[in-house]
Amino acid sequence: MSQILAIVTLDKDQVAGGAPIFAVATKEEQQKVSFTLEKILDANAHDLKNGNIILVKHN
Questions:
Q1: Rounded mean pLDDT of the chain?
Q2: What percent of the chain has pLDDT over 70?
Q3: Which residue in 5, 8, 42, 43 sits closest to 27, CA to CA?
Q4: Domain tally for the chain?
Q5: 3-state helix/strand/coil string of the chain
Q6: Burial letters 16-44, b for 16+ CB under 10 A, else e
Q7: From what superkingdom does this record's organism come (predicted)?
Q8: In terms of residue numbers, what domain contains 36?
């Protein structure tokens, strides 16, 4: 089973839920934050192509 550990979004009004949400201003900042969190959390980043990237821990 997989678990969503975080969401990095360009539009914080578009997301909600139990995972931490990181709102960023630009696509470049989104990529940088996602890459950093991916390493810290030992997770995989998945771009949903709607302004949101989710960080998922696959078991």
A1: 97
A2: 100
A3: 8
A4: 1
A5: CEEEEEEEECCHHHCCCCCCEEECCCHHHHHHHHHHHHHHHCCEEEECCCCEEEEEEEC
A6: eeeeeebbbeeeeebeebbeebbeeeebe
A7: Bacteria
A8: 2-10+19-58
pLDDT tens digits for range 22-31: 999 999 999 9
Q: Which amino acid is at 40?
A: I
**Which pair of structure tokens corresponds to residue 45?**
């980043």
Joined tokens for residue 56: 């998922």
Length of the chain: 59
Residue labelled with tokens 């991916």: 38
